[in-house]
Design brief:
The complex is a heterodimer.
Chain A lengths: L3 E4 L2 E4 L5 E7 L5 E7 L6 E7 L2 E4 L7 E4 L5 E6 L8 E8 L9 E2 L3 E5 L1
Parallel strand pairs in A: 2-11
Antiparallel strand pairs in A: 1-3, 3-8, 4-5, 4-9, 5-6, 7-8, 9-10, 9-11
Chain B lengths: L3 E2 L5 E4 L4 E7 L6 E7 L6 E6 L3 E5 L2 E6 L4 E6 L8 E9 L6 E4 L3 E6 L1
Classes of the chains: A mainly beta, B mainly beta.
């Protein structure tokens, strides 16, 4: 089945230790998004790629970076995680340019920072 | 004013009843609206989308959109305990290369057996 896959499902890192979260998709969608969701809050968009074009949200901290080496994969790098970065990180994909756009989410990565 | 507003709940309904979830939005130019269901600790799952004024039905779910009142709702008929989850209302903002899905904080629905 075509899907959005996030690895790992749970990630524990230490304060200040860089961490990378990964997302892959078999939907051949041209847009990949990264959202951060903290407990009882709305998912918050960090950035997205439209094909190779990177679109950063104005309030996304510099500590968060992203890479999209090809259509299928996208990575979220947190350079120096702080305690406040503990959250669920959600990857989503969509097909833009062929009518109304709908987002489909992966299962998420729950990040803990010790 | 938040771009998408929802009552956080919890909304408690008995099994078999109709659950009514509501959402208002501030940008009158918004065109596309979505309802996602999110179980605790899981990712959002798309259950309904609506682009035109009026009602859209899919099984036990009906989405309603009133652009003049800037109001979107989701009705769940014959509610089941398995429907207990947080329901996120979202709209697609922007256009072309800058589309973004903006979420409300969600309404927690509890269906009592």
């Amino acid at each position: 089945d075509a899907m959005v896959i996030q690895n790992p499902r749970y990630q524990v890192t230490q304060f200040g230790k860089p961490v990378t979260l990964s997302c892959s998709q078999t939907l051949n969608h041209n847009v990949m998004y990264w959202y951060q969701q903290k407990s009882s809050q709305a998912p918050k968009l960090l950035f997205h790629y439209y094909d190779k074009d990177f679109n950063n949200e104005a309030d996304t901290p510099d500590n968060f970076q992203s890479r999209r080496p090809n259509t299928s994969f996208c990575f979220l790098d947190i350079r120096s995680p702080g305690l406040g970065d503990a959250a669920m990180y959600l990857c989503a994909t969509s097909r833009r340019g062929q009518g109304n756009e709908k987002l489909f989410f992966g299962s998420g990565t729950q990040l803990s920072v010790l | 004013q938040k771009e998408v507003e929802q009552n956080s709940g919890p909304l408690s309904v008995p099994e078999g009843a109709i659950a009514s979830l509501n959402c208002t939005y501030s940008d009158r130019g918004s065109q596309s609206f979505f309802w996602y269901r999110q179980y605790s600790g899981k990712s959002p799952e798309l259950i309904m989308f609506i682009y035109s004024n009026g009602d859209k039905e899919d099984g036990r779910f009906t989405a309603q959109l009133n652009k003049a009142s800037q109001y979107v709702s989701l009705l769940i008929r014959d509610s089941q305990p398995s429907d207990s989850a947080t329901y996120l209302c979202a709209l697609l903002r922007g256009g072309g290369a800058t589309n973004k899905l903006i979420f409300g904080t969600g309404t927690l629905l509890a269906v009592q057996p």
